[in-house]
């Protein structure tokens, strides 16, 4: 297993007096297990000698792993951090201001909940009772508390110090959060989007050696008003993922009744030892796994795997694994352990769909079942399919042909979710949207009881089709 490593992001603007001392402290700071560190400095068009100071430090410390990037014009702290995030390559990321208000010797405090697997993000709080802090402006402190309270209301969390500049994250999570604010509004923006992504946020007390405005403090009243505006924007924005596909999948977490409808449709065919391919955030895992002797929830996306591990860490019958169906070795670990493969909304994402079905056939025991759900009808293919990464949609005959060529015998096919077809066509083919609006999805979810009653009577084709296929050595395979 690869040892943990740390990317330290330093946004820099006019800190000539402090930056050299800070860098000395950053590289002298002890890290757990002496983990490797890289430092990414982004100069936001400083007008003093900050750039020269950094260059002198780099020349004097050739062994230091430093990336020094420069903006051509001043954009703000948020923009500098956004640039630094793109270049972060280590497992964990920590934000370090370029002044001396925060002590690098406390890195271990911030990293401990991440390294233990408890947290996805850790905030260093200046207001939890521990350590030491310089006594400074009352009104500044009051504004911090007010902004933290409003942010807590918007995000439904209970932080004591949202505005802290000491934050640490799993890098893979941070890279998937879109950051739009260029200035100090980055603090509430990240916080609210982390909360909306259901990230595990921890706080730890830190020391704080604040400075006065005469000593170079930059944040002011204007930034407080801007932060309020950012809180409102972030509370209602749809932009909580950098890619549209995960955004759509996340929206389906708002439709638990629809997920239950799908799960209950296939439950009669699910055995006691299950491999779920493409479990995502676990919307269906929660419904299918109870009472199973063994349930493997798998995905190829690292963020989904972390979400699954967090959700099911105390379920002894559920194992979370990374599994790429295009890798024989990934699938081989389940040979002899499963009797059912749940394969919902995945086949359309795979370019070599027949090869994937053949690999799944190979790991099932004789009589084992494959439950596959795919989007139906290529004429429905639109921008929503593109956003989700679909290569194709299937007709019944195409799906049957693929399964039979792979060696499976079809037991049942089920038309599923006719009711959504008009909406999918309108959004994906007419309006050409790349995401699903949350309010209509919530409304759709409320009426699932009605859709279940009328779905099979609707006069148009389904949105999806489900096939129940069995591995049978007596079934003749079509040559490929």
Tell me what the structure shows.
The protein is an alpha/beta fold and 480 residues long. It folds into 2 domains: 6-242, Spore Coat Polysaccharide Biosynthesis Protein SpsA, Chain A, CATH 3.90.550; 245-471, Rossmann fold (3-Layer(aba) Sandwich), CATH 3.40.50.150. The protein is 38% helix and 17% strand. The chain has 19 helices and 14 strands. It has helices at 19-28, 50-60, 77-87, 107-115, 138-155, 171-174, 186-196, 221-236, 244-251, 256-266, 285-288, 302-311, 328-332, 353-363, 383-388, 396-406, 421-430, 438-446, 448-454; strands at 6-12, 37-43, 66-70, 92-95, 121-125, 167-170, 201-205, 273-276, 294-299, 318-322, 340-344, 369-375, 408-416, 464-471. The chain has a 7-stranded mixed beta sheet with strand order 3-2-1-4-6-5-7, with helices on both faces. Strands 10-9-8-11-12-14-13 form a 7-stranded mixed beta sheet, with helices on both faces. Helix 5 (138-155) runs parallel beside helix 8 (221-236) and helix 14 crosses helix 16. The two termini are 39 Å apart. The model has no long low-confidence stretch (mean pLDDT 91).
Rg, please? 26 Å
Q: What's the overall geometry?
A: elongated
Mean pLDDT equals 91
Strand count: 14
Main beta-sheet strand count, sense and barrel state: 7 strands, mixed
> How many domains, in number, for the residues?
2
CATH superfamily of the largest domain: Spore Coat Polysaccharide Biosynthesis Protein SpsA, Chain A
Q: Which bin fits the share of residues in helices? A: 25-40%
Stretches where pLDDT is under 50 for at least 5 consecutive residues are none
Distance between the termini: 39 Å
User: By helix and strand content, what is the structural category?
Assistant: alpha/beta
